[in-house]
Amino acid sequence: MMRPCSYRHKGFDAKVANSLPLFSVSNNNGIKGEQVAKTSAEIIADHEKKIAQIKARIQAEKAREISKDRKLDTRRKVILGGLLLDAAKKEPNWNRGLHELLDRITRDNDRKAFADFTPPAPPEENP
User: Fold this and answer.
1) Are 103 and 119 in contact (CB under 8 A)?
2) Span 65-115, pLDDT tens digits
3) Are 33 and 23 spatial neighbours (Cβ–Cβ below 8 Å)?
4) 18, 58, 93, 104: least CB-packed within 10 angstroms?
């Protein structure tokens, strides 16, 4: 590796020179030339680019986690709804409870979702 300056000049710190990041310079023919140290601005730009990439990965991971949580929540609601309907078919108390819950729906959009819904018939009570 070629360094851009001499190690012999007064006050030069060889450790600092060896820690400088390098990049290749190529001419128009695509042939690589000598190695040149990056400027502070280029180093900062590289680090900012890495930070942006890491932030994007963090955001993507958070989005995956939120999506996973929503899917699990939806699955739980579907299972509970199925259990409620099954219990309403088999037990009179659950059937009454289902009818009371359906009567509590107040939002128009929610009522429209149940417009064609027929709750299960109450089970016959044994005398």
Assistant:
1) no
2) 999 999 999 999 999 999 999 999 999 999 999 999 999 999 999 999 998
3) no
4) 104
CA distance readout (Å), 33 to 1, 13, 19, 69, 97: 11, 25, 20, 53, 81
Q: What is the pTM of this model?
A: 0.57
Close Cβ partners of 88 (under 8 Å, ≥ 6 residues apart): 94, 95, 97, 98, 119, 120, 122
| Closest by CA position to 121, among listed 82, 87, 93, 95 | 95
3-state secondary structure of 82: helix
**To 10 degrees, the CA torsion angle through 67, 69, 73, 76?**
120
